[in-house]
Amino acid sequence: MKLHQLRYFVTVAEELHFGRAASRLRMAQPPLSRQIHELEDELATRLFNRTTRGVELTDAGRILLEEARTALAQVDYAAEAARRAGQGEIGQLVVGVVPTVDTQVFTRILRTFSARYPSVQVAIRSLNTTTQIQGLRAGTLQAGFLRLPVRDDALTIKLVSREPLVAAVPAGHPLARAGRLSLATLADEPHVIFPRPVAPGYYDMIVSLYREAKVHLRIAQEAEHVQTILGLVAGGFGVSVLPGTVRNLRPRGVVFRSLTGRLPRAETAVAYRRDDPSEVLRAFVLVVERASARLPR
Question: What does the pLDDT read at residue 81?
Fold first, then answer.
């Protein structure tokens, strides 16, 4: 049984007239009649009673009509789903996000993508940079918003946003009364920092920053999560240098102060595997690129 034969059968069954059915199918009547005869021969049963008054469905024809409509609808649905998947319009996307991501930029990207591709399910995973890279390479993540610098030949990495560094100090600390702080004023303070295995690029940037300023960096505590770092700062265990967007978390007992001097910016990038063929990913990356197009380079 061929798919086009089912379509021909349904049309004849709806018209109950071979001439009108042929006209609707934009084909000659003899080939249409031949296809119906072949279908009846294959099923070894008559589907139509042909009389001088017209055409009527047999009991077998009525049963086949109901099932054929269901089958053709499912085929049409499958074809449309395949077309939409090929255009990146449906599917699933698993995205990793560092906890310190610029929430304004990320929210704008997610809102735009969801509006354009409402049938794509986006699953968000809060992961540090190292875990994201591992997930991207393993295929458990399709895209990741992580902290630069990152170097990995298997990944495409594109800058999304940049923001100033800020100092996080305990609310009751004397430094909290200052309007702005320098690295020199932080020199004698114990620092709370991300461990290098979790965020190697960010860790190295902070260490290099103090070294180039000829300021001693006294690391007292290390914590994997930004909420833990802020909790330790609030508890008086030290100060921390963090991306400016952490201010949006508004933790109790922590005061944020701008840093003076020519300091690097904390940069967020989107990363994805170079050889990932996903059309959904391609559509997502296009939205990310447009959202960050106005970012000063």
Answer: 62
The C-alpha atoms of residue 14 and residue 61 are separated, in whole angstroms, by: 11
Q: Under CATH, which number does the domain 3-86 receive?
A: 1.10.10.10
How far apart CA 146 and CA 127 sit, in angstroms, is: 9
Where in the chain are all domains bearing CATH 1.10.10.10? 3-86
Query: Residue 214, SS3?
Result: coil
What digits encode the pLDDT tens for the residues 162-218? 889 999 999 999 999 998 999 999 988 999 999 998 888 889 999 999 999 999 999
**Measured between alpha carbons, how far is 125 from 139 in angstroms, rounded to an integer?**
14
Residue 160: closest CA among 288, 274, 265, 283: 288
CATH number of 165-264: 3.40.190.290
Run of H or E residues at 295: none
CA distances from residue 215 to 129, 184, 212, 220, 238 in whole angstroms, order as listed: 27, 6, 8, 16, 16
Among 3.40.1190.20, 2.60.40.420, 3.30.870.10, 3.40.190.10, what is the CATH number of 91-156+274-291? 3.40.190.10
Closest CA to 82 of 74, 72, 90: 90
β-sheet bridge partners, residue 181: 259
